[in-house]
Amino acid sequence: QLQLVESGGGLVQRGGSLRLACTASGAPLQYFDIGWFRQAPGKERERISCIESTPINTYYADSVSGRFTISRDNAKNTVYLQMTRLQPEDTALYYCALHSWPSCVAGRDDAGTRGQGTQVTVSS
Length: 124
Hints:
The protein is mainly beta and about 120 residues long.
């Protein structure tokens, strides 16, 4: 059974960078489309990026486009989210989940198996 575990969160100052990792166990991640989501207290969940299994197309929400980069390393069974120029409004719990590419491009918010998340806090 596929399980996802996120890592790489932490406390960073405004303008700083972090790289989040979503590592899978139980199945090869290369066959799955993956989405990164975030949720801040009192706010709705936001889908911020997606990556297709094959071909490797990517999507970014306007709020992170140009600052975040999603990638995958199938040999390590891991999807990454490189975050740069972080702002206080990026503070949230970040998690990865199975999220089909058709759902991503259609703007549907459905997601399957997800991890527990990793907290990102950006101080001003």
